Structure to design on (263 residues):
């Protein structure tokens, strides 16, 4: 593929997944992406977002801020530049899955913009785990390797959300995931391959083959767990569940790299 079409697809993807000031190139901000065309660019967009947060982590470490503050600033950067898109999905999913009586009630709760106790708890725990894992990586492996792990996690985790959309039908006829539709098998495969390549290229030199393998396996386990849970509780997937899957997969990658980098 030529570089210009790839750059255009990457910008179009970033305009959906972030609030970065980018040229429109005819793409409406936050418009539902054409997954059949753009699925391969989604892990690349995650890589860009993770790299930006990693740069903040490196800058904070260079200023001799404690590892906790450097990690917190990096995670805060991701939250800000993405508009808390996936965090919102995690909170809605936790509220629906945790507080719903049945399928319809769960979907109704997930559509409610208010955050309940399950959602608030899930958000707090997710932030703690992301910051804690990054802090531990900085202390154990240094700021540069921690930043690389964050970039890899951001790329791999966004691919899992697309694979979830491919694996399960939409749980409702309207909504974000229904409007996007299921990606074609070739598009989902391209997305997975680009994510796997990004994780391998980043993690093998930085942490070794074992940690890279763990970084590839961890998001798949998170995807499988969320897919089974979502299929059982709401009969499919939603945009919120995709966001929650991304959050859990990102945490899973960071923890897996942390564990196997020290083994």
């Amino acid at each position: 593929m030529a570089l210009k079409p790839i750059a255009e697809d990457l910008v179009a993807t970033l305009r959906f997944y972030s609030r970065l000031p980018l040229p429109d190139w005819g793409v409406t901000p936050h418009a539902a992406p054409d997954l059949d065309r753009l699925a391969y660019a989604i892990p690349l967009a995650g890589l860009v977002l993770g790299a930006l947060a990693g740069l903040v982590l490196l800058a904070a470490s260079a200023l001799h801020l404690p590892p906790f503050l450097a990690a917190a600033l990096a995670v805060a950067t991701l939250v800000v530049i993405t508009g808390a898109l996936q965090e919102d999905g995690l909170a809605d999913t936790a509220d629906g899955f945790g507080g719903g009586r049945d399928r319809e009630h769960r979907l109704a709760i997930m559509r409610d913009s208010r955050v309940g106790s399950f959602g608030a708890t899930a958000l707090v725990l997710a932030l703690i785990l992301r910051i804690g894992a990054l802090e531990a990586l900085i202390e154990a492996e240094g700021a540069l390797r921690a930043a690389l792990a964050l970039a890899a996690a951001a790329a791999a985790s966004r691919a899992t959300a697309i694979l979830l959309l491919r694996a399960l039908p939409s749980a409702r006829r309207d909504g974000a995931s229904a409007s996007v539709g299921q990606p074609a098998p070739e598009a989902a495969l391209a997305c997975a391959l680009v994510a796997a390549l990004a994780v391998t290229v980043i993690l093998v030199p930085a942490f070794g083959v074992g940690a890279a393998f763990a970084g590839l396996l961890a998001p798949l386990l998170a995807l499988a767990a969320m897919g089974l849970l979502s299929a059982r509780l709401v009969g499919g997937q939603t945009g919120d569940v995709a966001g929650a899957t991304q959050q859990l997969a990102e945490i899973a990658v960071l923890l897996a790299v942390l564990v196997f980098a020290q083994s």
Notes: The chain has a mean pLDDT of 92. The radius of gyration is 17 Å.
